């Protein structure tokens, strides 16, 4: 397999030796939006013979990356579990969003939205919430969003506590998106497609050399589809991402880029849990804790009320200069703004309506949020020799400011049942103003009439971070290396909520400083392999989500210390087969979160809890033969809530706190077993066939471990055919067996339904 030369200088992953590359995607679509839409087109990865190519010598399929990366050793010698989802896999699997791309990575689950948890990307990595641990080219991407991949080159997943790399949070790991940048050669690619469920997608990727040392690249996207198997749910979005690179070959380089995406959709409602009732007069109606067995298309929302509008704008200036002695200076400035505006119906089961009356309260979860960020990172990196010992280092300082304004919608008339003046629903229909509906066969087109206004209870959150970090890989000889890293964070966040006629003003403040560490000992028994023992930490201060997530700042937690996580990991990595074309990894690890925030014996929130995860991770990526490629892995997680604090078994007026009966239970949203496989076989030079599976065991939705979704295995298939060197076709069938499964579980009230079977046909054109 060959690949076009490319530079992607913004990755966490650096490669100073054992360089491995993979086909640069030319996922490109130039088609009038008025054309009949055709399904998502995967990038054509056939190399242009006019462009120099290199042989793939490693199987992890990473793009060449910059020496400015916070990783100071090749991936093979990095003492961490790292999975890179390359452009080739993203294209072949037909992924169109970040959550689609992460489906190929075991150990990651997607959480469901809830009242305090916004609709958007909500990842859990190794059992820990990673909602705030998404980065773009190594810089934190704040704000609740649903991220696209039309301008993404590859996705990097770093697992285990790693605040030394990214700062606050990162208890389970982080996700880094590497964006497409302008290259030194010209190309034009277009892809258009149609599919089932009104699927239409057009994307384009155009690159132009605009001078002897500069280039311009433009990525565009327009997308529309309904969710297979789900009534009403679906939407459309469009995006544009221009970038200019100055100084392609000189010692000084500047990359200027802009990204914009807008979306409009009706978000999904999911299916409520069949509540377990073990005591009281209604024990005979006890449910088994799984989602109700209703038709998979059941939608509990209101088509004329529910909506979600998002917008994301990011502007980046990336400057770097290489000195004569090999030292590289870099400065990156980024401004970003994201908006998440929605009314979304949660099928609420908290009042027992589902099991008692066969009804559902249409709880309106709403949010009007704007998050603005300004970041600046300055770093220095290079190699040096001291006393015969080689050092590969990267050190820098980061400054970041995030501002979030958050409000909610209020409705007239309200969303309670007017017959009870509460959210209990003994009946449903027009007399409840359609705020209550039936569990079976609800009508999403009920004539719900309302006026909507933004609440005056505006919450303003301002977060400032100042940090300094340093990393060093010390190579004593070809067999032994030590990796060291440290980061110091000064984290400040303030929250202010304006008063209303019925609510008082709220103010809270956190001022926290903390160190994060990583160290790893690497032994190389051969040049193509490594064995490592590593230790790393993370720190999660109160309010780390900047006011736009589940870990919100409150008066109750403002004086608490950061939650601390540490990870011990023993692993090995090997590039095997001729040319090192297949990468194999294995690791065993133990992660512990101390200082976890739980209820103390006096009813206050304190840092007295503890969580523990022990696990095993296996990974593989590359080519078994010149025709047969594989990508995937397996993760085992033994995730225990070791100390959940105390539980109130009394009343609000007379609380009685006892040791939590949930000690020893499993983490919510954490399967014990998860696995993924994507494999393709080139039957001929023109025809390729691919198959994939994603599998995970049952998952709990709450710490009680009495609400859960069953495990599942989903199969996908792909076939591509090159008509000639400029035109190729690709057929993707997702969820081949039309498996009913639940793919979003973190709310204790409902589970998100996975998409049903769908098919898309794409056409890729080079011109």
Question: Can you walk through the features of this model?
Answer:
The chain has four helices and 42 strands. With 767 residues, it is mainly β. Strand 11 (187-195) and strand 12 (199-209) form a beta hairpin. It starts with a strand and ends with a strand. Residues 1-61 and 63-68 have low confidence and may be disordered.
Task: Outline the secondary-structure elements.
Layout: E1 2-4, E2 53-55, E3 81-85, H1 87-92, H2 98-102, E4 108-110, E5 123-125, E6 128-129, E7 134-136, E8 139-140, E9 152-159, H3 163-166, E10 173-179, E11 187-195, E12 199-209, E13 214-226, E14 234-246, E15 252-266, E16 271-272, E17 307-322, E18 328-348, H4 353-357, E19 359-386, E20 389-407, E21 409-412, E22 436-438, E23 451-454, E24 459-477, E25 480-497, E26 506-526, E27 529-540, E28 563-576, E29 582-599, E30 605-623, E31 628-643, E32 646-648, E33 657-659, E34 673-682, E35 687-696, E36 699-700, E37 708-709, E38 712-722, E39 727-734, E40 742-744, E41 750-753, E42 758-766
Parallel strand pairs: 7-10
Antiparallel strand pairs: 1-2, 3-9, 4-5, 5-6, 7-8, 9-10, 11-12, 11-42, 12-13, 13-14, 14-15, 15-17, 16-41, 17-18, 18-19, 19-20, 19-22, 20-24, 21-23, 24-25, 25-26, 26-27, 27-28, 28-29, 29-30, 30-31, 31-34, 32-33, 34-35, 35-38, 36-37, 38-39, 39-42, 40-41
């Amino acid at each position: 397999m060959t690949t076009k030369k490319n530079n992607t200088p913004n990755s966490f992953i650096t490669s100073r030796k054992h360089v491995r590359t993979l086909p640069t995607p030319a996922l490109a679509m130039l088609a009038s939006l008025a054309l009949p839409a055709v399904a998502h087109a995967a990038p054509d990865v056939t190399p242009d013979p006019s462009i120099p190519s290199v042989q793939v010598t490693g199987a992890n399929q990473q793009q060449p990356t910059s020496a400015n990366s916070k990783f100071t050793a090749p991936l093979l010698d990095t003492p961490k579990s790292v999975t890179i989802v390359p452009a080739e896999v993203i294209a072949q699997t037909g992924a169109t969003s970040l959550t689609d791309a992460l489906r190929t990575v075991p150990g990651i689950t997607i959480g469901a939205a809830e009242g305090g948890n916004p609709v958007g990307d909500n990842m859990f990595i190794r059992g820990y919430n990673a909602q705030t641990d998404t980065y773009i080219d190594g810089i934190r991407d704040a704000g609740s969003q649903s991220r696209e991949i039309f301008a993404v080159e590859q996705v990097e997943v770093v697992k285990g506590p790693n605040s030394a790399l990214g700062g606050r949070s990162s208890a389970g790991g982080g996700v880094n998106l590497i964006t497409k940048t302008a290259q030194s050669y010209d190309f034009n690619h277009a892809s258009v497609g149609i599919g089932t469920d009104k699927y239409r997608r057009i994307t384009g990727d155009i690159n132009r050399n605009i001078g002897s040392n500069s280039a311009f690249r433009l990525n565009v996207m327009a997308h529309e589809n309904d969710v297979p198997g789900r009534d009403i749910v679906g939407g459309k979005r469009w995006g544009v991402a221009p970038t200019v690179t100055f100084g392609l070959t000189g010692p000084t380089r500047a990359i200027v880029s802009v990204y914009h995406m807008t979306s409009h959709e009706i978000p999904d409602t999911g299916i409520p849990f069949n509540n377990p009732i073990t005591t009281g007069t209604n024990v005979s109606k006890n449910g088994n804790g799984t989602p109700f067995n209703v038709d998979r298309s059941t939608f509990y929302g209101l088509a004329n009320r529910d909506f979600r509008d998002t917008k994301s704008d990011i502007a980046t200036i990336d400057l770097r200069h290489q000195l004569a002695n090999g030292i590289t200076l870099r400065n990156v400035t980024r401004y970003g703004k994201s908006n998440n505006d929605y009314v979304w119906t949660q099928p609420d089961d908290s009042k027992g309506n589902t099991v008692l009356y066969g009804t559902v309260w249409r709880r309106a979860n709403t949010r009007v949020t704007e998050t603005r960020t300004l970041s600046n990172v300055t770093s220095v990196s290079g190699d040096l020799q001291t006393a015969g010992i080689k050092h590969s280092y990267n050190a820098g300082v980061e400054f970041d400011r995030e501002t979030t304004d958050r409000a909610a919608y209020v409705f007239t008339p309200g969303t309670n049942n007017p017959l009870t003046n509460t959210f209990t629903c003994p009946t449903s229909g027009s007399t409840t103003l359609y705020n209550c509906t039936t569990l079976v066969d609800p009508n999403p087109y009920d004539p719900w009439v309302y006026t909507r206004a933004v609440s005056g209870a505006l919450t303003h959150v301002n977060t400032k971070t100042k940090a300094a970090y340093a990393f060093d890989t010390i190579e004593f000889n070809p067999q032994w290396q030590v990796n060291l890293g440290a980061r110091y964070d000064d984290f400040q966040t303030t929250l202010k909520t304006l008063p209303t006629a019925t609510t008082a003003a709220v103010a809270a403040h956190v001022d926290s400083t903390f160190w994060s560490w990583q160290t790893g000992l690497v032994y190389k028994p051969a040049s193509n392999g490594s064995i490592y023992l590593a230790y790393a930490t993370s720190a999660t201060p109160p309010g780390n989500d900047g006011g736009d997530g589940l870990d919100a700042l409150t008066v109750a937690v403002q004086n608490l210390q950061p939650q601390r996580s540490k990870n011990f990991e023993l692993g090995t990595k090997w590039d095997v087969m001729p040319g090192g074309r297949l990468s194999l990894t294995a690791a065993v690890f133990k992660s512990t979160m101390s200082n976890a925030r739980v209820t103390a014996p006096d009813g206050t929130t304190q840092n007295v809890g503890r969580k523990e995860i022990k696990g095993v991770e296996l990974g593989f990526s590359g080519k078994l033969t010149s025709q047969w490629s594989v990508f995937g892995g397996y993760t085992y997680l033994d995730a225990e809530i070791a100390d959940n604090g105390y539980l109130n078994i009394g009343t609000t007026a007379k609380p009685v706190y006892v040791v939590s009966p949930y000690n020893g239970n499993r983490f919510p949203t954490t399967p014990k077993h998860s696995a993924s496989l994507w494999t393709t076989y080139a039957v001929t030079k023109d025809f390729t066939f691919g198959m994939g599976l994603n599998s995970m065991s049952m998952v709990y939705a709450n710490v009680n471990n009495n609400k859960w979704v069953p495990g599942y295995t989903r199969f996908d298939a792909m076939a591509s055919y090159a008509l000639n060197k400029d035109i190729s076709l690709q057929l993707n069938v997702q969820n081949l067996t039309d498996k009913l499964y639940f793919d979003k579980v973190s709310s204790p009230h409902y589970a998100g339904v996975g998409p049903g079977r769908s098919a898309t046909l794409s056409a890729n054109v080079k011109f």
